[in-house]
Design goal:
0% strand, mainly alpha, single chain, 11 helices
Length: 201
Amino acid sequence: MAAGAWAATTGRPYATICLMRSPDPSETSVSPANSFTAGDVLAILRGHGWLSADPTPEQVSWCERAAGILGGHVADGAALGELLGLVFHYDAREIVSKVESHVVLSRYAARDVLRELALLLLDGGAVNSERFSEIITRLKEGLDLRGRELFHPIRLALAGRAGEGELDRVILLLDEAAGLPFTVGVKSVRTRIVEFCAALD
């Protein structure tokens, strides 16, 4: 659904959302223009069967946030749908079984990152931008790691894929989505880290 049409039917103004700067200094850059809206996210959710009923105000708000923090990091709707797919599909055993996951997990201190990450996630509440930044800071200070050695295990365990900073933004959407009545239940960050660590055993 086009942005103008969706806005006209709902009368709801789009929120201006500030993108979280990635905690990894190596990934800070100026984000490209974001042309995606909550209406685009809703259309993707419906197209994949992740939302079947009329959205609640909370779901619309989540879609606005998803468009705001993901939209500037994708080239088209297909790429946006791929990132949203990481929110709605998570299978720890499937992730761990992939060759690229073995590469990440074989790097220096990857298991240490996961162990400390699990302790931090299980010892607190929902993960938002502020708490995620705090967790990253504590991991950096405690493990003296930077770059992919720190971020790739985190992204693999929580977003289901190792990669760049857009995956951190996927992580920021998880806990809020987990509390909303989507057709497909979203797993929280705590659930994901527990399942991921269990799949490693």
